[in-house]
Amino acid sequence: MAQAETGMHPVLRGETAAKKKSRVVHFARLLVKSPTGMIGFLILLGFVFFGVAGEWVSPYDPNHTEFSKKFLPPMTDGHLLGTDQLGRDMLSRIIHGTQISLIIGVTTVLFAGTIGTIIGIITGYFRGWIDTVLMRIVDVQLSFPFILLVLIINAVIGAGLRNIIISLVIAGWVVYARVVRSEVLVLREKEFILSCVSTGVPRWEIILKHILPNLLTPIIILSSLQIATFIIAEASISFLGFGVQPPQPAWGNMLSEGKNYIFSSWWLITFPGLAIVFVSLGVNFFGDWLRDVLDPQLKGK
Q: Quick one: DSSP state of residue 158?
């Protein structure tokens, strides 16, 4: 009776838990064996740590100005990375800029991925006129350079953190829609899908229980690579003055503020630029490793 209440035999529960644990251990071993994957993972781990714990690990208030300490070089008077033109601590501003990049990268991927996945499933599974209309919209949008499209949208709706997330979502969902649609077109011709259709299984059940689980791998791989794209796009838009606005610290507007002092105070653009480079490399290294591990077409190569 006790076994019936739990819904699974204790031995089977132990096997399931053991299988999950062995899968985690297997992925961990694969990660350790990959130098680039491990480097990317460690960079991402530090990126997430500073993004989450920035308020506690930041040595100074990122917006505190002290004109008597402006343009201090790195390792001077307790400022590890120096100070900017207003005497603000560069390390503190870069740490808080990590929070902005993390918020934008994760939020944009969640919303753009959700919208693009839904549209990709609808167009790929149902086809017909809705596929024609939505895919023509995708084609038109993909004909514009990504950064240019984001700039146009931001110029219309205005600057700010919320608006740059909206503009990145509007410009970024099409990539997910295109990838998911192509996967669905292949899946809908598989035998297990055709057998579900022939036995009268409802369409929503086929999509949720059979198609969507098979889309998780390409969506995860694409999302891991898109995070770097969105972070770089945010930095570019903020550098041009259409994104996150000062005094809120963001890597892009820090580069914009420091470009006028490039020859006299090199650290004002060097350290924010390095932050963008390292995070982008980390995301791409880890994304490439995920693709190699999760993509079945690459496992045999």
A: -
